[in-house]
Write a structure and sequence with these properties.
mainly alpha; about 75% helix; single chain; elongated
Length: about 70
Amino acid sequence: MEKLKTNVLSEISALTLEIEQDYPELLKYLDETRSTLPHGNENSSMDMKSLEDYRETLKELIQSYGKNRK
């Protein structure tokens, strides 16, 4: 399970970097999409569902913007 979580976190990092480098105009949306993740209080945890949902949100953001950009 930890390996899977690490892979998802790596994908999130790569997608975030892609947005920063290729689509800087989308950076303003990253704060909004991060709101889907638990906020660092003691009772929250980074569950796989939240991480996977965030990853998919980033992918959709890039894909939607790429289509509209053409």
